[in-house]
Amino acid sequence: xxxxxxxxxxxxxxxxxxxxxxxxxxLDHFPPLLxxxxxxxxAAVPAVFLVGRPKVAWKWIVGVGLVLGVAKFGLxxxxxxxxxxxxxxxxxLQIQAVFTAMIAFVALGERPSRLGALGMAIALAGIGVxxxxxxxxxxxxxxxxxxxxxxxxxxxxxxxxxAAPPDALNFMVWVSTVPVLPxxxxxxxxxxxxxxxxxxxxxxxxxxxxxxxxxWITTVFxxxxxxxxxxxxxxxxxxxxxxxVPVFGMSSAALFLGEPVSGLxxxxxxLLVGGVALTSLAPRKKAASAVAxxxxxxxxxxxGAERLPEPEPRGA
Length: 316
Description:
Layout: H1 3-26, H2 32-44, H3 58-81, H4 86-92, H5 96-108, E1 110-112, H6 114-137, H7 140-163, H8 168-177, H9 180-191, H10 193-201, H11 205-230, H12 235-238, H13 245-256, H14 263-281, E2 284-286
């Protein structure tokens, strides 16, 4: 990679890592489901009028929008609102790579190599260490919700792989149109109209800034830049940079939110990031009856920070 392209990859990882700290700040201004709905609304409008028509079938846009937008981000925002630390969230969500591999094995017949299976075992050990750490210092239920969010992310990765969108930004913008109404409906039902109206009535510039960051900087810039890099470099070259996301996530949470990083959490980080690296970068085998096309690794950022896999350019 050229130095400028390498720097851009690091910037995107930093943007996605800091995103978790911004979400934590935003949750001081909004109920979690309303915040998630506003995030997708701001990501979709006005971008949906600028990116052109959808380039994949609507069934994939709706499917990914519900699984990624409603389920994954809804669970993540609720988890963080109920006590899941921002830095730990950025780390735990990386387990999505393991869920992606597991679901792809069941749904697509993609068999992980021995190295990939070893990576999954190491990453799961990291999740176990993180669970012990969080169980001793915070609400374990919020931790479970975050893991469930990672599982939903893995499912959305497999759906996106089946959709094979030729333009990641176009796909993400159209996907962002799907969760808005379901999340608003869930917010009214669960969080209540009085709480939602109070949040909107008391909206200040900090609240607006958090919505714009998670929508425009994380989604529009982040996915656009990541897709641009993937169109110019093999996925195996770009993918490892997503492993920097929890580094920036945990660092920014410690710096701006004062979140402590225990010895157990560092141990979990080493195991999880190392395991995800092996899982994401190890070659996968297609089932004998499947078409022999090598899938690209599906690294994550996220959410929220958030990353949709981009098909590897032909001939890369």
